Amino acid sequence: MSLPWAVAQLGWIAGPAVIFLFSFITYYTSTLLAACYRLGNPIIGEQNYPYMDVVRSILGGTKAKICGLLQYLNLFGVAIGWTVAFSVSMMAIDRSNCFHKKNNNSLYNKSSNSYIIAFGVIEIILSQIPIFDQLWWLHIVITIMSFTYATIGLALSIARVAENGKFKGSFTGISIDTVTQTQKVWRIFQALGNIAFAYSYSIEIQDMSKSPPSEAKTMKNATLVSVVVTTIFYMLYGCMGYAAFGDMAPGNLLAGFGFFNPCWLVDIANASIAIHLLRTYQVYTRPLFGFIEDYAERRFEHSPFVTKEIEISVLGFRPYKLKVFKLIWRTIFVILTTGISMLLPFFNDVVGLLGALGFWPLAVYFPVEMYIAQMKIPKWSTKWLCLQMLSVACLIITIATAAGSIAGVVLDLKSYKPFRTRY
């Protein structure tokens, strides 16, 4: 949703080029990671399922702990991002209805806090469902939701371009007349983070492939197809959104209220996003939930607080066994992400910061270092130097994007008062 805004900051030349660059980096480093799936021999070597196990097997325990910390911090941050995104979509529906009733968008003055709290309450309930990730029909519903809002956003952008009769925008992006020179620099960095977030992923290995061919080959082929399809859609979405609005491209294409009509179609798109995020929050947080709960059971295996279960009768079903520790820990986690989201409800700033913090360490540094160690690439050789240059370049981009996003948060906080300002 933030790609049109990101392209607007970069312009017609740098915008598509950066999207393509991140797609190439994502594909390439994914192939490096795939080569490390089996330790030693790529066909008969020992398999490594969790990402941390791969790092531990190849780079040692210390780096595995750092990797795990970064992984789970990224998951925590993404949970905050999804909470903010949900409130943004719900407010867009509310704002749309307000506009069509009063024919004046400026009359809308409502805080996002109520929607953030509602999202938190729902997630507390969903987090206690033990087989949430095994509900096959839910995956189908969410996939439909994803295609629905994405297709609507693209179609509305194309329709707006046809209505305008031209492509808006410029080769250099948002003009200095619209923002100051300093703001433009920070926005460019922030845009890089938004694009990085679109390509970043919380890496985990789920072995559902059969061999032969080798799992590494299957992973590479699957990654190539997914990255190509994703990049084509990202290009269309980012560029058509920019062509439709130019410098005025909203931070969230469907929730920035660039589209007023047809209101029912925009509402369907935002409702699809909201439903999608309800499940996505669970997908991203389950690994973190499981890690903490497994550690607690190992560390305090004789503690009644950790092991005690409460049976809850469910009409027509077997009694549901609920662990007290699980209930309290997951509830505290959701409350924490909800509270932070209310403090920092800034969509593009949060997305840019998450993209910056998650992209280099998880998607570039560790795959590069593991590949070098796995393939025993000689130090200072041409290939070693190229891989290190790629890693350093991505580190520089990460630092720049993090700085831009932090600057955006600081700027927003000057006019935003937590729990009081209507945002």
From TrEMBL:
Q: Which residues form the Amino acid transporter transmembrane domain?
A: 2-410
GO terms for cellular component: membrane
**Sorted alphabetically, which InterPro entries does this protein's record hold?**
AA_transpt_TM
List, in alphabetical order, the GO biological process terms annotated in this UniProt record. amino acid transport
Domain of life assignment: Eukaryota
Give yes or no: UniProt keyword Transmembrane.
yes
Subcellular localization is given as: Membrane
KW Transport (keyword) present = yes
Q: Which UniProt keywords apply?
A: Amino-acid transport, Membrane, Transmembrane, Transmembrane helix, Transport
**Membrane-crossing residues?**
7-28, 72-93, 114-131, 137-159, 224-245, 257-278, 327-347, 353-372, 384-411
What is the protein's name according to its record? Answer: Amino acid transporter transmembrane domain-containing protein
Organism expressing this protein natively: Corymbia citriodora subsp. variegata
